[in-house]
Design a protein that fits this description.
globular; alpha+beta; 24% strand
Length: 246
């Protein structure tokens, strides 16, 4: 089921909050989040994308998507947590908007109704909120640049090749800078970061198999050497490859 066609089962929380921690990991969550960042700057690092949420960023976090959070500036967010009858296949996303009046108004209504335990009216308002963000998402992402969709497909299949980026840029007939701008606009992550994420996920799979040495995995994933691979792996996951393997 796509985000645009979700069927709400229960609204579990409506909250305006300021985080107390500077960083944390969110995984195996039971609810989806939808809301807006009101101030501050927070990075959310997912498996294949990275969000930098600042003032007036609306967002949807799918419960299937685990992420790490890093608070760069004191932040405040307003969100609804909810469950659905069917899993949502749409990946987490965020959109920078200019005017937050409609979104904030709907969230304030939702908070009022949540505190009153008026579940029927609450669901109606949350549907309206989801519809508003769905419309924003459509205007922001579609029609997506077909060159970027084609580029992502190529990267997904060839990210371990040394000339992957050069080939995909050549195929797009764009400059390196312009390609990077369009890719990030389409997928909220730079091509380089996207490739690193894919390599690390492949490395995790190879490490978990127990069949390959760290040097072999570095070569398979096209890192320059085992030392650089270990450095990048630890930066991305928080642990060294040897510890992950064990």
């Amino acid at each position: 089921m796509q985000f645009e066609n979700l069927h709400i089962k229960d609204v579990t929380n409506v909250v305006s909050f300021t985080p107390n921690s500077k960083q944390w990991v969110a995984k195996d969550r039971e609810t989806h989040f939808i809301g807006i960042s009101l101030k501050g700057k927070v990075i959310h690092t997912f498996e294949n994308q990275e969000f930098t949420l600042s003032e007036n960023c609306v967002y949807f976090f799918n419960k299937k998507d685990n992420y790490m959070t890093f608070v760069l500036e004191q932040s405040e967010a307003f969100s609804v947590h909810f469950t659905t009858y069917e899993n949502i296949s749409t990946d987490s996303f965020y959109i920078q908007i200019n005017n937050n009046a409609t979104i904030v108004s709907l969230l304030e209504k939702a908070l009022h109704l949540y505190n009153k335990n008026d579940h029927l009216a609450l669901h109606s308002v949350v549907y309206a909120l989801c519809s508003e963000i769905s419309n924003l998402k459509y205007r922001h992402y579609f029609p997506k640049d077909k060159r970027m969709a084609k580029a992502k497909e190529y990267i997904d299949l060839n990210f371990c090749n040394a000339d992957c980026i050069d080939e995909v840029i050549k195929e797009s007939s764009l400059t390196q800078r312009r390609f990077g701008e369009l890719f990030r606009k389409a997928y909220n992550i730079t091509p380089h970061r996207y490739i690193i994420k894919l390599k690390i996920e492949k490395a995790k799979t190879l490490l978990s198999s127990g069949k390959y040495s760290i040097s072999s995995i570095a070569a398979i994933c096209n890192f320059s050497d085992a030392y650089y691979f270990s450095k990048v792996f630890k930066k991305e996951t928080g642990v060294a490859p040897s510890k992950w393997k064990n």
